[in-house]
Amino acid sequence: AMLGAGTGPLAGLKALVTSGPTHEPIDPVRYIANRSSGKQGHAIAAALARLGAETLLISGPVNLPDPLGVSTKHVETAREMLAACEAALPADIAVCAAAVADWRVDNEAGQKIKKEKGGLPQLSFTENPDILATLSKLNHSRPRLVIGFAAETENVIEHASAKRERKGCDWIVANDVSVDETGGGVMGGEENTIHLIRAEGREDWPRMAKSAAAEKLARAIAQHFSLSDEG
Ligand code: CTP
Ligand code: CA
């Protein structure tokens, strides 16, 4: 049966999910971006909605359909993604799954940069706002549960735990994105190996489909709210 908003363990809660890459323009036809298919973030938004949360997905450019049961807002840049998140507050749950570009070009050209001009373009970079850290450090409108991702290629647990403390989020979903023994990468792939890192400790999940990982994370979120509402 279809679960509409208003039924399920997350009924009455509002969730915000970022997903996909951001694109940071160099000129009107070129950009820099991270590798991200958006599959994991989109699957999490769908899973939260299935459990009854009123879910807003804020997505960078991806080749995926908008998930059913979710309101989706499309953005391009990190600054647009942050503005869309802020506009969506208040929210109970924030899941930052987007692969936000850490830097943007601060001397973006208004016209296409032409080769004929000779020489090479001199790009100058500035740091983008950190959406996860910004949401985690809000005073009045901080979502009650803020979850970040950490895509790491080495020392996954150590780097991810440090990231949790630095960003001020509640949970970190740590993701080993090193190329695995079969030669297949996580980026763009269908599966993920996740460690869920919380203040209380860590859970190591077996390698599973991104859709299954999304379901498991949504269940952990529902469990968290059922425990915190009992007390
Ligand atoms: N993130 C964000 N805004 C940014 C950069 C990252 O919201 N400008 C979020 C990501 O969505 C993710 C988490 O922060 O949930 C960690 O992203 P990651 O790139 O692993 O961390 P960084 O702090 O950018 O560190 P680095 O890339 O140097 O490892
Ligand atoms: Ca980064």
UniProtKB/TrEMBL annotation:
Its EC number is 4.1.1.36, 6.3.2.5. Binds 1 FMN per subunit. The keyword Nucleotide-binding does not apply. CTP binds at residues 102, 112, 129-132, 149, 163, 167. GO terms for biological process: coenzyme A biosynthetic process; pantothenate catabolic process. The keyword Oxidoreductase does not apply. GO terms for molecular function: FMN binding; metal ion binding; phosphopantothenate--cysteine ligase activity; phosphopantothenoylcysteine decarboxylase activity. Residues 15-231 are annotated as: Phosphopantothenate--cysteine ligase. It catalyses: N-[(R)-4-phosphopantothenoyl]-L-cysteine + H(+) = (R)-4'-phosphopantetheine + CO2; (R)-4'-phosphopantothenate + L-cysteine + CTP = N-[(R)-4-phosphopantothenoyl]-L-cysteine + CMP + diphosphate + H(+). Its cofactor is Mg(2+); FMN. Pathway: Cofactor biosynthesis; coenzyme A biosynthesis; CoA from (R)-pantothenate: step 3/5; Cofactor biosynthesis; coenzyme A biosynthesis; CoA from (R)-pantothenate: step 2/5. GO terms for cellular component: phosphopantothenoylcysteine decarboxylase complex. Residues 10-223 form the DNA/pantothenate metabolism flavoprotein C-terminal domain. Keywords: Decarboxylase, Flavoprotein, FMN, Ligase, Lyase, Magnesium, Metal-binding, Multifunctional enzyme. Catalyzes two steps in the biosynthesis of coenzyme A. In the first step cysteine is conjugated to 4'-phosphopantothenate to form 4-phosphopantothenoylcysteine, in the latter compound is decarboxylated to form 4'-phosphopantotheine. In the N-terminal section; belongs to the HFCD (homo-oligomeric flavin containing Cys decarboxylase) superfamily. This is Coenzyme A biosynthesis bifunctional protein CoaBC. The gene is coaBC. The chain holds residues 182 to 412 of 415 of the full protein.
